[in-house]
Amino acid sequence: MTQWAPEDIRSIRESDDFHIAPFRDDGTTPGTLTWIWAVVVDDAIYVRAYNGTSSRWYGSAVAQRAGRVSIGGTVHDATFVPVDDTDLNERIDEAYRAKYAGSPYLPPMLTEKVRAATVRVDAR
Predict the structure, then answer these.
(1) CA–CA dist 20, 4 (Å, integer)
(2) Average pLDDT over residues 106-121
(3) InterPro entries in the record, alphabetically (predicted)?
C-alpha cells in the first residue's frame, strides 16, 4: 500500500470533495470523475459504491485496479483494492457514521449490499 500525503488525508477527513475515475476497459483511459463519499481509517482512504457491486465505477475499479482520483481538486493516480474484512468494514462504518452523520444517504451506505462494494484507494 502506497501512503497518501498528510495533506491529502487531512483533506479527506475535513471535506467532502473526492472524485473517482477507474480506468476503462483499455486499462489506460480514465473514466469520468464521479463524486463519491470517502472516509479515512488508519490513514487509508476507503470508498463504497452506493449501488453496491452492480455500480459501474465499482466494476471498473475491481476489473482495472487502477485509475485516477481527485482530492480537493488535485488529480492523483491511484490503485483500487477491494475490501473483504468484517472487522475493517465495521471500522469503515464508524468512519461513515462520524463524517456523514445526519445525512439521509448514510443508512444505505451501511447495508451489506453497499459494504460488499468497499474499496481501499491507494496512491500510485
Answers:
(1) 15
(2) 97
(3) UCP028498
